[in-house]
Amino acid sequence: MSELLRDLLAANATHADEYRDRFDDVQESQAPDAVTICCSDSRVLQDQIWGNEEPGRLFTCGNIGNRVVQRTAAGTAVSGDVLYPIEHTGTELAIVVGHTGCGAVTATYDDLTDGLDEPAGIEHCIGLLKDTLAPGVAALPTDVGRASAINRLVEYNVDRQVEFLRESDDVPDDVAVVGVVYDFQDVYSERRGEVQVINVDGETDVPALREANPEIKDRISRLWTY
């Protein structure tokens, strides 16, 4: 057995001790307050970014590129893991969580501009982003460097995932959909790990968002208006 696995199991034992009584109210069912769709990047601490230590509070989905879509026999649809809490547990808030320096967005950008040769599984995931990001790549300013281009496309991708959720007939109109970017690269501020709100129910204009949400106006920011 590897030393790393032993260390992980020891940490889990501590977790089990700390959480012994925290599952009492959710052992038989769940009613999460929000579903979050995060990138599965190892730097995105999916529950900890919200300070969440409460089992049952967040329904957390993760995949490369924080995608809300999947391909089905009937065509492109809202991913089942995203839709499940909305359909079956009454969850009324969906949060799409992009992040600075996203590898999936970078790979999609590279594939669109130069082409990539990836294993089939990765190619499939990138393929779910290519059509979405292609117009964003075409619209990029010509005077931005590679890193800045990627972080603008991170916002563009979050916007498109929010848009897909809002336009889907499977997502009720009373479900609020918010897009955010998790920043650990000092792109928006020097507070590494801080979330910036960039989209609320399809609204992306920063002054309008700040006026409509004055209580969080210092957390609303964007790099790009396109």
TrEMBL record:
EC number: 4.2.1.1
Cofactor dependency: Zn(2+)
Cofactor note: Binds 1 zinc ion per subunit.
Key words of the record: Lyase, Metal-binding, Zinc
Binding residues annotated for Zn(2+), in chain numbering: 39, 99, 102
GO molecular function, one term: carbonate dehydratase activity
UniProt xrefs under SUPFAM superfamilies: beta-carbonic anhydrase, cab
Alphabetized SMART domains for the sequence: Pro_CA
Catalytic activity: hydrogencarbonate + H(+) = CO2 + H2O
Superkingdom to which the source organism belongs: Archaea
Family stated for the protein in its record: Belongs to the beta-class carbonic anhydrase family.
Protein name as catalogued: carbonic anhydrase
